[in-house]
Amino acid sequence: MATFYPPVGFHFKVEFTGISTKDQDQEFQSVSGLSVGIETEEFTEGGENRFKHKFPVRTKFPNLVLKRGLFKDSELVKWCREAIEDFEFKPIDLTVKLLNQEHEPLMTWNVVHAYPVKWTVSDFNAEENGIVVETVELAYNYFKTIT
Description:
There is one protein chain. The chain is mostly beta strands and about 150 residues long. The chain has one helix spanning about 75-85; strands at about 10-15, 30, 35-45, 55-60, 65-70, 90-100, 105-120, 135-140, 140-145. Helices cover about 10% and strands about 45% of the residues. Strands 1, 2, 5, 6, 7, 8 and 9 form a seven-stranded antiparallel β-sheet that branches. The longest helix has 12 residues, at about 75-85. The two termini are about 20 Å apart.
């Protein structure tokens, strides 16, 4: 009988459609923001004072946040700088792949119509010996999960 082990959360990669196929633009320290919620609208009914009716309205997706060590020559950062500095937005699709021990996808999230909304570099501090981390924050329309 096979034993199921939950997948590890540290073996993943991010692929951008039309930006770069370099390994440095696919490997990140962390990815967050793969979540979805339902917005609701409240309706009060006359004579009913115990509660308000809540109805589903639409889905809501937070920004996708990608973190990694700072790279000097990155197609991803060039794409972000075009959007932030030149206000030239070129939305793309991307995939986040959770990988198994054979480097094959266990699950894939297709993120649709993403564009950069924020790019930050970690603080410089002479009292610590950490690496410089860049953070890219992307807004997107929605994602689909593929198992």
